[in-house]
Write a structure and sequence with these properties.
Elements: E1 3-4, E2 11-12, E3 15-16, E4 19-25, E5 36-42, H1 57-68, E6 79-83, E7 91-98, H2 105-119, E8 126-130, H3 133-138, H4 143-154, E9 173-179, H5 187-208, H6 216-229, E10 233-237, H7 239-245, H8 248-254, E11 262-268, E12 276-281, E13 283-287, H9 307-322, E14 327-337, E15 349-351, E16 357-359, H10 367-382, E17 386-391, H11 395-401, E18 406-410, H12 413-426, E19 430-432, E20 450-451, H13 459-468, E21 476-480, H14 504-512
Parallel strand pairs: 4-9, 5-7, 5-8, 8-9, 12-14, 12-17, 13-14, 16-20, 17-21, 18-19
Antiparallel strand pairs: 1-4, 2-3, 6-7, 10-11, 11-14, 15-16, 18-21
Helix pairs in contact: 2-4, 4-5, 5-9, 6-9, 8-10, 9-14, 10-13, 12-14
The structure holds ligand BES, magnesium ion and zinc ion.
């Protein structure tokens, strides 16, 4: 029995991307006709050891020869396109898993991602893969879920602006057939994996879209669209509303741009929910630094300064489909940070939503300003049991942790433990940084309650501690995704360039495994 999930092309912000349709079948591949098959091979066992009995004999024969000749060895991170010599399935995408007893979910996700990447150049529209007990034994959840997730993440490309003479700008649809003769997975699990990856790919699309096509109003429109599709509440506050609410920090940042700032609020609720969590994402659609202007080199990268917002929107898109038993409030403060004639100046003092006065010493430390007002608003209005924020907050976080691990600051160890755990499951790794009160001394203000930068050192910690002034003791974790949200190298399921969609699967795993905080 086969059934199809997914429907046609995803159209996001009027761009086409490749769509995978994942089909489930529990009959062996022996009689199927497909253009290619993905095979996962370990480096220290033969094909049978890799659990590939379900492959047709003729195909196995040629694959064994390739392995014997060491055309392909099964090493981790390696992959090889082979011809099978078997007419019904002429091409093989062999992907290495490394050592058999070191196999885990992340290795499998990366291997599947590698296969997904190969699909984008492959001349094939029907591709199979086999779920084996080797793969299932390596993961705690469901191998089908991990494979569907990895394939969908790996197949992602951002070609929206390559319209002329480009094969890749043409929409392409590939049918992936999951062959599961031993009934190890299910259509439901495949679908769950695909939903998580599609949410991540949505965040990637938003991140990669240039700032001339993605303004605060476009993030608001995307939020409205997600809310409409999944029956959530969505309110967008305008600058006049922010004035009434006293959001002087957010309004201060937005002054330098003609594009009006927005405060997006989405509410997902579940009848049986016992707790409410808030997720807040930084949505600076372009960060020039403002009057404290950034250097010209690599300033283009500041279109990624809304990746926190993208993660929140991608996660809400997933929550709308998996219906977790939790109430979730998403808040996105969104603005440009530009040095227009009305821009705020270094030395200006503004009043935050919670009444604190803040001296702006550097207009480029704007993320903490807009997040501070958003955090203060959400804890006051919704009294959530926990609050998380995701932000491309500091360049210092890239210096400390590079592009591979998200930095965290928290006031609550139990919540931090849950976030860390979700990071390990999802592959969106998180590392807690210290936050002893001594670090916070340098942002106590000279002329106001607070100032928006410290002395220079430990910038990531100070950015986090600034935010702590706006959460009124709510259990909180701040996630600095400045490094992890773009430009991640050498991970099978991550694109070679651009936005990663980090945070989406982290938030989904956190919510799905949520343990109430006492
Ligand atoms: N958007 C930046 C942080 C950033 C920098 C993200 C590089 C990704 C790559 C943020 O708004 C910012 O400019 N932070 C300043 C803070 C400083 C002025 C205290 C920074 O990191 O330089
Ligand atoms: Mg403005
Ligand atoms: Zn900045």
């Amino acid at each position: 029995m086969s059934s199809i999930i997914g429907h046609g092309l995803i159209i996001i912000n009027r761009y086409f991307i490749m769509e995978l349709k994942i089909v489930y079948s529990n009959i062996p591949l022996t009689n199927e006709k497909l253009e290619a098959v993905v095979v996962f091979v370990t480096e220290d066992s033969d094909l049978l050891g890799s659990g590939l009995r379900a492959l047709p004999d003729a195909l196995k024969k040629n694959l064994s020869t390739s392995l014997k000749l060491r055309v392909f060895t099964g090493k981790k991170g390696k992959s090889q396109h082979l011809f099978s010599g078997y007419a019904k399935i002429p091409q093989i995408l062999a992907v290495g898993l490394g050592k058999k007893d070191e196999l885990d979910a992340e290795t499998l996700r990366r291997a599947a991602g590698k296969a997904g990447k190969m699909l984008t150049d492959l001349k094939a529209n029907t591709v199979g893969f086999v779920v084996t007990s080797l793969l299932q034994d390596a993961v705690e959840t469901d191998a089908g879920l991990v494979l569907a997730e990895g394939l969908t993440l790996g197949a992602y490309e951002f070609n929206a602006y390559k319209k002329t003479d480009n094969e890749k700008s043409k929409p392409k649809s590939v049918i992936i057939q999951c062959c599961d003769p031993d009934n190890l997975t299910s259509l439901k699990a495949l679908k769950a994996g695909k939903i998580r990856a599609d949410g991540t790919n949505l965040a990637r699309n938003l991140g990669n879209t240039p700032a001339n096509d993605l303004k605060p109003k476009d993030l608001a429109a995307e939020a409205k669209k997600i809310a409409r599709q999944h029956k959530m509440e969505c309110t967008v506050l305008e600058e006049k509303d922010m004035k009434k609410l006293g959001m002087g920090m957010l309004l201060g940042v937005s002054r330098g741009s003609r594009e009006p700032a927005k405060l997006i609020i989405m509410e997902y609720s579940h009848q049986q929910a016992k707790q409410t969590i808030a997720i807040v994402g930084k949505g600076v659609t372009f960060d020039s630094g403002g009057i404290s202007l950034k250097p010209g080199k690599n300033m283009d990268e500041m279109k990624f300064d809304m990746c926190g917002a993208a993660a929140v929107l991608g996660a809400m898109e997933v929550f709308g489909q998996v219906n977790p038993k939790l109430n979730i409030i998403a808040v996105i403060p969104t603005t440009e940070n530009l040095p227009g004639g009305e821009a705020q100046r270094p030395g200006d003092i503004v009043t935050a939503h919670n009444g604190k006065r803040v001296e702006i010493l550097n207009t480029d430390a704007e993320g903490r300003l807009i997040l501070g007002d958003a955090l203060s608003y959400v804890v006051k209005e919704f009294k959530p049991d926990a609050v998380l924020d995701l932000a491309t907050l500091t360049g210092a976080c890239i210096t400390a942790l590079g592009h591979f691990t998200t930095g965290a600051i928290t006031n609550n160890d139990a919540l931090m433990e849950q976030v860390r755990n979700a990071g390990n499951i999802s592959g969106d790794l998180v590392w807690q940084l210290p936050s002893y009160p001594e670090y916070g001394e340098s942002i106590k203000g000279k002329y106001a309650d607070l100032q928006n930068i410290g002395g220079g050192d430990s910038g990531t910690i100070i950015g986090g501690l600034f935010l702590e002034h706006f959460i009124d003791k709510t259990p909180w974790v701040h996630l600095d995704i400045a490094g992890t949200s773009w430009n991640v190298k050498h991970i099978g399921y991550q694109p070679n360039n651009g936005a990663t969609g980090v945070g989406v699967r982290l938030l989904v795993d956190l919510v799905q495994k949520w343990k109430p905080l006492s």
